[in-house]
Structures are given as structure tokens and as C-alpha cells.
């Protein structure tokens, strides 16, 4: 009783406890913010480099099927999201089953809305394998930032969002930067001629991926804002459709190879790493959007571009930088920061 009365009569003690509790509460989200950004940098850079390495690695046996890797990534994503939903329901299998039945089975129209972005995401994931089979990691990373432009345009047309002056300027910088990155240089003229066909295929694949990423991302954001479902439940729905579309695509285009050598032909440690990184990519972005602001997310993208360029040049030896590339890369990085300046970007999606 004496201690309690002493604390009551001494407001400084209570004030100190409240301030320390506030500091601890503030510090935890801050740590999560930078931790999630660090994970995003590692995931993005690792995915691009390992995917590029896996598609150019010379092997004795058959190379793994890109369509198979897409299907495997969706299976792993569904499994991961199911575990997260189980955690949200205090590890009660029954509660999780009732929730999934209520949100997926008993709401067929809501579930069917995810078929559109799922089909587009499946196409996009296959296009990324095509792009990285024909482009070096650095060029791919910079060019793929055009998804900022497509996302912004779809956000304006589909969500009615308004872009500020800084956003429009950043989009102009972005287009200029990507143009410089793709601009042929005389010093690399002979190499460009030899690989002109594959270079064109890679660029077209990236551009199509940017278009699909922009539309599907904004469409998915619109669905998320219209409902109060868990992000992980929505990703399970998305993953189920993506698995179906991916499996159909695999059997249509690679059915003979699957029948002869199996779905997991050519799989090794690198392939499994690519599948795992692709599966967790959208989940990592969801965490980043929750705990970090868009300026820091842009910083993470810029760091990923720089790391991909350095590793592609020094370790993979498949990239010869030019002055135009560096100028274009600087413009793309500057555009990423400028787009996030003074206010949030036009879109905050949960899948890349």
C-alpha cells in the first residue's frame, strides 16, 4: 500500500514509465520498417540474379521448365498464406477452416473477382522468365521500373486518382531513363548485332510484364479496398486461380516435356531458390507497405538496382555497362524517389 501511494504521489515515476513504454512502442515499428525494407532489397536482388543465373547456366540434363516453376511458386505461396491465416486464428485449424469456407466457398462472386488478376499475374510471371533468359539482370531491373508508369496510368483511369506535378515529372524522367538504358551504343555494336533478336524478345517481354503488372496491381488494390478480408485470405484466393491458370498453361505449352520427364525435371538447389523467392515476393511487399513509407520503398528499389548491376558485372560477367546505361539508371533511380516525394504514390499493391 505504501509503494502504491508513493507512486500515486510521485507523478514523475508514472511519467517516466509512460515515456519509456512509448519509446518501446515506437522503436518496434521502426525496427520492423527497416527490417522489412532490408528483406525487400535482398529478395528483389536475389530473385533477379538467381533467375538470370538459372536460365543461363549450362547443364548436362534438361533445363527446368519456367511454366513449372510458376506453378510451384503458387503452391508454395498458398501454403505460406495458409500458415499465416492459421496464426491469425490462434493456430485453430477449425477456426481457419470455417473462415476459409465462409470467405471462399460461401462467397463465390467475391472469389471469382480474383480470376482476372490471377490470370494476368500468371502471364506476368512467365514473361519474367522470358525476359531474364534474354536480358542481363541490370538492364532488366532498370527497364522493369516502367511498371511505375503503367501502375500510375491505370490508377488514374481505374481508381480516379490524381497525380501531382512531382509524379508527372518523375514519369517523364522514368521514360527518359529507360530509353537511355535501351539505347544501342557504338562500343557494344557488334555484341548488340549478335544478340539483337534475344534483346528484342527480352525488352518486349519486360514491357508486357509492366503492362500486366500495372493493370493487375491496380485491379487487386481496388478489390482489397472494397472488402475487409484478410490480405492473406485474398492471396490464397489469388493463388488458387493462379495455380489453375499456371497448370493449364504448363500442360498446353510444355505438356509433352512434362509427360516425358515429369513436372520437376531439371530442378536443383538454384531452381528451388528461385521458386521460393518468387513465392514470398508478394508477401514481402505486403509487409513493406504495412510498416514502411513509399520513400523508403523507393530507396530499397534503388539499392536493388545498384546491387544487381554490380553483381551482374562482377560475378555473372554478362553485362558491359556504358555511359548511357549509367545515365539512364541514375534517371530511373531519381524518378523512383521523385514519384514518392510529398505524398504517397498512386498505387500501393500487394503483389509485384
TrEMBL record:
Gene Ontology CC: Golgi membrane
InterPro entries listed in its UniProt record: EmrE-like (IPR037185), Nuc_sug_transpt (IPR007271)
UniProt entry keywords in alphabetical sequence: Golgi apparatus, Membrane, Sugar transport, Transmembrane, Transmembrane helix, Transport
Pfam families the UniProt entry points to: Nuc_sug_transp (PF04142)
Annotated region (Disordered), positions in chain: 1-22
Subcellular location: Golgi apparatus membrane
Membrane topology type: Multi-pass membrane protein
Keyword Transmembrane in annotation: yes
Gene Ontology molecular function terms on file: pyrimidine nucleotide-sugar transmembrane transporter activity
Segments passing through the bilayer: 34-53, 65-86, 165-184, 196-220, 232-253, 265-289, 296-316, 322-341
Similarity comment: family membership: Belongs to the nucleotide-sugar transporter family. SLC35A subfamily.
Listed NCBIfam families: nst
Descriptive protein name: Solute carrier family 35 member A3b
Native species: Fundulus heteroclitus
Amino acid at each position: 500500500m505504501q509503494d502504491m501511494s508513493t507512486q500515486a504521489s510521485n507523478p514523475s515515476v508514472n511519467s517516466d514509465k509512460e515515456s519509456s513504454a512509448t519509446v518501446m512502442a515506437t522503436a518496434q515499428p521502426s525496427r520492423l520498417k527497416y527490417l522489412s525494407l532490408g528483406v525487400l532489397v535482398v529478395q528483389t536482388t536475389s530473385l533477379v540474379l538467381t533467375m538470370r543465373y538459372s536460365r543461363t547456366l549450362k547443364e548436362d540434363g534438361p533445363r527446368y521448365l519456367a511454366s513449372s516453376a510458376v506453378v510451384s511458386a503458387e503452391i508454395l505461396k498458398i501454403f505460406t498464406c495458409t500458415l499465416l491465416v492459421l496464426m491469425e486464428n490462434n493456430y485453430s485449424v477449425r477456426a481457419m477452416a470455417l473462415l476459409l469456407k465462409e470467405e471462399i466457398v460461401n462467397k463465390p462472386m467475391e472469389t471469382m473477382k480474383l480470376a482476372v488478376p490471377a490470370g494476368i499475374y500468371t502471364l506476368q510471371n512467365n514473361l519474367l522468365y522470358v525476359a531474364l533468359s534474354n536480358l542481363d539482370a541490370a538492364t532488366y531491373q532498370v527497364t522493369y521500373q516502367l511498371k511505375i508508369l503503367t501502375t500510375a496510368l491505370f490508377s488514374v483511369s481505374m481508381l480516379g486518382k490524381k497525380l501531382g506535378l512531382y509524379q508527372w515529372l518523375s514519369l517523364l524522367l522514368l521514360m527518359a531513363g529507360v530509353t537511355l538504358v535501351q539505347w544501342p551504343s557504338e562500343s557494344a555494336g557488334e555484341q548488340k548485332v549478335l544478340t539483337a533478336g534475344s534483346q528484342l524478345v527480352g525488352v518486349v517481354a519486360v514491357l508486357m510484364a509492366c503492362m500486366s503488372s500495372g493493370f493487375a496491381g491496380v485491379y487487386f488494390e481496388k478489390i482489397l479496398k472494397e472488402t475487409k478480408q484478410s490480405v492473406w485470405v485474398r492471396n490464397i484466393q489469388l493463388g488458387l486461380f493462379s495455380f489453375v491458370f499456371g497448370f493449364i498453361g504448363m500442360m498446353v505449352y510444355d505438356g509433352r516435356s512434362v509427360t516425358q520427364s515429369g513436372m520437376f525435371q531439371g530442378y536443383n538447389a538454384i531452381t528451388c531458390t528461385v521458386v521460393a523467392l518468387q513465392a514470398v515476393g508478394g508477401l514481402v511487399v505486403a509487409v513493406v507497405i504495412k510498416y514502411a513509407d513509399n520513400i523508403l520503398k523507393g530507396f530499397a528499389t534503388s539499392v536493388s538496382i545498384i546491387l544487381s548491376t554490380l553483381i551482374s558485372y562482377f560475378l555473372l560477367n554478362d553485362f558491359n555497362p556504358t555511359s548511357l546505361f549509367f545515365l539512364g539508371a541514375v534517371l530511373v533511380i531519381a524518378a523512383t524517389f521523385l514519384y514518392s516525394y510529398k505524398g504517397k504514390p498512386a498505387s500501393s499493391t500487394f503483389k509485384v
